[in-house]
Amino acid sequence: MLRPIILFVSIVAMIFILAQPIAVIAKSTSENVHKETTEAWDAIKAYMVDKKHEAFAHGKELLHKADARIEELEGEAAKASGDTKAQYQKEIKDLKKKRANAAKKLDELEKSSASTWDSAKHGFAEAYKDLLDAYHEAAKKFN
What we know:
- The chain has one domain (2-142): Four Helix Bundle (Hemerythrin (Met), subunit A) (Up-down Bundle).
- It is 94% helix and 0% strand.
- It has helices at residues 2-79, 82-111, 117-142.
């Protein structure tokens, strides 16, 4: 009678011992997954930062081109007279306001964190679109 009990206890002990490595393996696997996920997130954030710098440089280039277009309108305004000159000046004033807003949004883009990146990117895109649309409307009026 003692023999079956010893056999039963031995089997239970063996199962318990064999089950331990599975728990340890499961724990290390979940730790590895967490580590890999953290590393991937860090890589994504770093990639976003790289793109942020590229986006900022591109935004600066776009604003320089907009400045050149505004200067062209200012040159044409200098040659105009009367109501046409007043209309040029009004349009140029509006363009400069929109350009200042786009520059502000570009600064926000440059200073954005990973959590505010999408919002800042969208803000600059909208501000630049407003500037570009206003320029095209102004150019249509004088051509």
